[in-house]
Design a protein that fits this description.
By secondary structure, this protein is of the alpha+beta class. The protein is built from 25 helices and 15 strands. Its main location: cytoplasm.
Length: 713
């Protein structure tokens, strides 16, 4: 049987480079978070997506990203010969893994930490190109589920017949044993994320097959909804599409434009007025809502939001903050708020949300706190409301450790810690709840809770019994991954509860692994390396001779350590404040002559500079004039530390405390015979001019003033 006739046409009247017609319907299965039904020629595929949701198995939880679980199956009636086993066969397992790997590369997995996304593909009728059809269906279903992606994958299967490459082969063309390649690309560009081959492909024919596949994917991925714009979706437009605020991409073929089974009637979104359009559609979407156009000015929009009554506010929350197919509801608005233009809009919504009449549920608390923490968005009225609702739920006894709500409690505690909330009453209540249910809490969960409390610099006396028992029962076998084990040991170090046995076992177990990871991928693992150095410093200065060599870590500090350490320390735009402080410091004590360059100290601390001060004469001493081994009671070696606002609690009534590992860093620097002098951005911002700031820095350095807020003796 000839696949291509003498006139250059295939059996279904297509040219070699033409793709079969495609039609689809999104939202075909209401019970799923996202779904799609797709017909690609005679191949019919149904796809459902569930999630992001909590992982069913705690052992599979990824602390840094979500996991993708894909299942491929074929209906028993999908092929002429009835199948006895619709799923679980070798090919199904292989295709499932291919789908997982392909979509892990485009889904923004970092936005959905500690969660899972399930993808189910069912081939209802197999007429060739089954895997490619499933990929296209999954892309539509993921868009319908409201999952953030960096781009959409389109796929097509190509084959080589008598040396002629053919796109999108049907099952009749499969009857010939021809080499076939399934190719998937992102946004129709030359970025290949899926490549699966069948039969033997001659190396001289492979380039033509690949070119055919890429071109076919490019045509398949064209969006009919906006044909003038074929650029990849940026994150904001992706969220709009995922939030059902614009029509899903419609597939366009090389031979003809396909007609979607179900057309969307939603208006086209102008990305310049994204927030306004979201709120306008959210309000107009309900038949009971106000049928009015919101003005396209910020002040007019704020006026309209503030004018909403309670019923309209509830509807706004339901359609924007609580859409059924978007798990991290507040992220829709918070991603918009990441563009500074919309921060005022978000503040207005939060102001309205603050006066919402009923107490927030535990799950609503978790969602809002985590979302605000993800974008470092601290809004004082909202935080006050969240604290009050949390304490009310605490009074009602909602945080029983045997209940699934206790996982929610963990996320809320982590959110308060990341938001840098300064409220001793709040943290006292959290510590009381942890202590009360301590014996019912699993070891790894206990480690994360204590780590959140330690990062918030919660007083050790509030958790003394829990910390002592945690240190006594600390066992590396209780941890599923190295990062969790490292976090547990780091928590003990921050609370001065590290034991010699724990330090020896953890450091000897993790040292070689983390050092190897830092050599291979320094940018991704340097934070872990710094934490390991801090644990080792705690073992050296606070314990009695643990069996671990501190010199091993000092000698292994990479050459570019300070640049990597500064990237770890100064996040969320705080590096600019360090640069300003560095310029002020070097104007007082010139670099190299009186002030050493910033470095990563052997204690794992970032030291922004070292200065020698003669206390008797109240003057700076040249670095060259004093030998490092010489001891002089009048000469003090000062370690200059600068901490941005992100390294302290948000001040209430002018008071703030250092958080995370910085109190521990200062302890260790003192033990290393340095005198740390801490400068905090809050203090410098209060001064009116650079001259005042220079005078303040000079005076504190000459007085060797090492006092800092939040120090626990």
């Amino acid at each position: 049987m000839n696949v291509i006739n003498e006139f250059g046409y295939r059996q279904d009247a297509r040219k070699p480079d033409q793709i079969r017609n495609i039609s689809y319907r999104m939202g075909a299965f209401p019970h799923a978070d996202g779904s799609a039904y797709l017909e690609q020629g005679g191949t019919k595929v149904a796809c459902t997506v569930f999630g992001p949701h909590e992982c069913r198995k705690r052992s599979e939880t990824n602390e840094e990203a979500c996991i993708i679980n894909a299942q491929y199956s074929m209906a028993t009636f999908s092929v002429p010969d009835r199948r006895n086993r619709p799923r679980g066969d070798r090919r199904g397992n292989k295709y499932g893994r291919l789908l997982e790997k392909a979509f892990e590369s485009v889904i923004s997995t970092a936005l959905y930490k500690r969660s899972q996304i399930d993808i189910f593909c069912e081939v209802l009728e197999a007429d060739g190109g089954n895997l490619a059809a499933c990929v296209n269906a999954v892309s539509l279903a993921i868009a319908d589920a409201g999952i953030s992606v960096r781009g959409l994958i389109t796929a097509v299967e190509c084959g080589s017949v008598d040396g002629v490459p053919c796109a999108d082969m049907s099952s009749r063309e499969h009857m010939e044993v021809v080499p076939r390649v399934t190719i998937g690309t992102v946004d129709g560009k030359n970025k290949i994320v899926l490549l699966e081959m069948k039969n033997v492909v001659n190396e001289t024919r492979l380039p033509a097959l690949l070119d055919m596949g890429v071109n076919a994917c490019k045509q398949t991925g064209d969006t009919a909804s906006n044909p003038d714009n074929n650029e990849a979706l940026d994150p904001l437009v992706s969220f709009v599409k995922n939030s059902k605020l614009q029509a899903a991409p419609k597939l366009k073929l090389m031979n003809q434009s396909s007609t979607p089974i179900e057309q969307s009637t939603l208006p086209k979104i102008n990305s310049d007025k994204l927030a306004q359009s979201i709120l306008q559609i959210a309000i107009n979407e309900s038949s009971s809502g106000p049928k009015k156009q919101l003005p396209y000015t910020l002040e007019g929009l704020k006026t309209q939001i503030l004018a909403l009554n309670e019923e309209e506010l509830v509807m706004l929350l339901q359609h924007v903050i609580h859409p059924a197919k978007f798990r991290d509801r507040m992220n829709v608005l918070l991603v918009l708020a990441s563009n500074k233009t919309f921060l005022e809009i978000l503040a207005v919504i939060y102001d309205k949300f603050e006066s919402y009449p009923r107490t927030l549920s535990p799950w609503e608390l978790r969602t809002i706190i985590q979302s605000a923490a993800d974008f470092s968005f601290y809004h004082a009225p909202l935080v006050h409301r969240l604290k009050c609702d949390f304490l009310n739920l605490r009074a009602y006894g909602c945080w029983n450790a045997s209940s699934p709500r206790f996982d929610v409690f963990e996320h809320i505690v982590l959110g308060f810690s990341r938001l840098r909330v300064e409220d001793r009453h709040l943290w006292s209540e959290i510590a009381s709840n942890i202590s009360y249910y301590w014996r019912s809490i699993k070891p790894e969960l206990a480690s994360r809770l204590l780590n959140s409390c330690a990062a918030a610099n919660v007083d050790k006396s509030l958790l003394a019994d829990c910390i002592a028992e945690f240190a006594k029962q600390f066992d590396p076998q209780n941890y599923n991954n190295e990062r969790s084990l490292l976090g547990g040991a780091h928590t003990l170090a921050m609370y001065r509860a590290l034991t010699p046995n724990t330090a020896t076992s953890v450091l000897n177990y993790l040292k070689n692994r983390i050092l190897e990871q830092v050599k291979r991928f320094p940018e991704n693992n340097f934070y872990d390396y710094m934490r390991l150095m801090q644990i080792c410093a705690a073992a050296k200065y606070e314990l009695e001779s643990p069996q671990v060599q501190h010199a091993d870590f000092v000698l292994s500090i990479p050459d570019n350590a300070i640049s990597l350490a500064l990237e770890v320390k100064y996040v969320n735009g705080s590096l600019i404040h360090f640069t300003q402080f560095k310029n002020l410091l070097h104007s007082i004590v010139p670099l190299d002559k009186f002030c050493a360059e910033a470095c990563l100290h052997e204690t794992g601390s970032v030291v922004e500079g070292q200065v020698l001060v003669d206390k008797s004469k109240r003057e700076f001493v040249s670095l060259d004039s004093v030998d490092s081994n010489t001891t002089d009671d009048n000469i003090t070696r000062v370690a200059v530390l600068f901490l941005a606002n992100v390294h302290t609690t948000v001040p209430e009534n002018g008071q703030f405390r250092l958080i995370r590992q910085y109190p521990m860093n200062i302890r260790h620097l003192r033990a290393a015979n340095l005198h740390p002098v801490v400068f905090v951005q809050h203090d410098l911002d209060r001064l009116p001019s650079d001259r005042d700031r220079c005078d303040y820095i000079r005076e504190r350095l000459l007085n060797v003033s090492a006092d800092y807020p939040g120090e626990n003796p």
